[in-house]
Amino acid sequence: MDSPIKNHFTVLIKKQNILKNEFPSDSFLISYDLILFVCEQNTLGLEVNVKNLFLSASHSYSAVRHHYLSLIESGYIRAEFKPNNKKTKLLFATDKSYALVEKILAC
Fold first, then answer.
1. What is the enclosing helix (H) or strand (E) of 63?
2. What is the model's pTM?
């Protein structure tokens, strides 16, 4: 295998290991998908609610729910009721989420 390809794989494995260390579950990519969606939407100035998050994911409802709750609990995503609408929760990426994305990009 030539060196440039080998170097690309080395970088990809480093990125994967960062995610594996951050999310000990075998399905760590689901958590990362959810974080990326919330970070992207927040950065674009778009509202993200729980329904949008679930619709954005190509994973099962139960998998998304499990990881969504885990991300809330571990401080990657913050949920707040929408002002004047206590039925809708808005989601916000925390500094912890942005730090993870930066760490992966720096690899």
1. helix 61-73
2. 0.87
